[in-house]
Amino acid sequence: MTDASAFVAAAVGLAFEARIAQRSHGVVPCVGRGSALADRLATIAGPGCRGIISFGIAGGLDPRFRPGTVVVASAIVHEAGSWRTDEAWSDHLLTRLGSAIHAPILGADRPLVEAAEKASWFQRTGAAAVDMESHVAAAAASKMDLPLAALRVIADPAGRAVPDSALAGMRPDGSTHALAVFRELSRRPSETVSLIRLARDAGAARRRLVDARRRLGPGFGLLDLA
User: Fold this and answer.
1) Contact at 8 Å (CB) between 21 and 52?
2) N or C: which end of the chain has fewer CB within 10 A?
3) Homologous superfamily of 7-164+201-225 in CATH?
């Protein structure tokens, strides 16, 4: 019988990812990046925490994968090192999701926006996707001796640059400042088509993220393994 107080900590970078993660019980989302996220995970992951998962959208690195591709990490790689994900938990995620890719995910300290830079990191690491939270989650899980998993949905493909106007709206608390995006776009009108394309693909990734969350149930499936 599952302990009613047990939960999984979900490391996310965006507010909408936190809302999706929390749609079923047994999950406590931690929103942030870098040291702020590390501090939140250290605070949350006390008694009752059964594992840490990195959850949300990601940038594509492997040119074979289109927006909407679900990636379950086999490992998290970063300039500072690498971490293996929990095999049993990851296998459970893959079984529940059916069509997900099992591959490394790169954790980055800043956004990778240029296609050439994405290609370089893919050649160096073989990672299918990149985000800014997975390596923080991995380091926290290792430090606390907790199971680690990562589930990310590709929003922007490897061969496409991310427009600067899209980054302008990113707030530290994970929310989006729409006015800042439009202000930047007014200075860079040539990015309009790219921004519309990114919004379309991000919407598809978000819907896929919602579907994945629904399939996994309480505690991202980890509590079922207890």
Assistant:
1) no
2) N
3) Nucleoside phosphorylase domain (3.40.50.1580)
